[in-house]
What does this fold into?
Amino acid sequence: MTVAESADRYAEMVRAKTSTGALTPRTAEVYVRDVLTFAELAGGGRVLDDLTGQDVDEVLLAFARKPDGRRRAGAVVRPVEGPVQSAASQARFRRSVSAFFKYAVVAGWVQLDPMRAVTVRSVQRGGLRAERRALTVEQAEGLLGAARGLAEVGVEGGTAGGGGRRRADQRTELRDGLIVLLLAAVGPRVSELTAANVEDFFVNGGTRYWRIFGKGGRTRDVPLPGPVVEVLDAYVARGRGGLDRGVEPKALLLSWRGRRLARGDVQAVIDRVLARVEAGRRRSVTPHGLRHTTATHLLAAATDMDAVRRVLGHADLATLGRYRDELPGELEAAMRVHPLLGSVEGRRDG
It folds into this structure.
């Protein structure tokens, strides 16, 4: 059996599991995408049972250097050295390939699992990122300011700059501003954002909440900051109706064709908003990078760790460690307001 044939059969099996509830559609989508990418990188015409551990090593390294498909053509991407894919993406891809070969052994497609002979490790694949992912305060404020400015353009009905004036039923300024505000202020997974429905936002005790349906069937109710609520209300009242074609009556975020916004579209939205940020405060960022930014700044502000965990939708506090970046001047600021020395300093001054 060829690599392409086995990948197609495996993809059919994975998709079938969604109908029985064994896998969620989002998880199945990831498995299918990874195995098809593996087939592409390994060579679809090769015989699956001929692949060795060295062949899989080469595929893992090729995947590490594969450009991030979330960025659309024309987006400004700075050249980088070494791996392009993040450590998390590489680890996920390796798990998907491993699951594929375990199934191939059971199905009799291969005699031996080549993953047992793989020698490439995470550090060789670039497991440690060379650059921080969280935006600084200045960069985050620049992006949020641009998002709110874009939303105001949508409310006023003016032009967003570039590309001329769009038809009223193709205007996405309010939607784009809302997307960036939700990502940066609340830190949802991109899949959670695109799966959101209008009915998932509700008011309780005078506070607007977003009921997020997360991984593992877990839900969480996250209160929204006032500036986010303002843009959300404006979008639901003015922006969404212009995009609604009656195809997706529940979806919050719609494309100008009226379809539920796809995960791959979110990066293009971020890049459009980034283009409105002044150069000195602009830095390229992914949807996951904005989730990372939310966690880093909430923790830096001494927000209760369990509260941050609940906002992000993690089952374990230990997971927060990988979302934590050091911020410039953070240690100096912490020592200036040391909780044990504040009273001593006050007595000395008196």
Notes: Confidence is low (pLDDT under 50) at residues 71-82, 123-131, 160-164. The first helix runs from residue 3 to 20. The radius of gyration is 23 Å. Residues 187 and 291 are 4 Å apart (CA to CA).
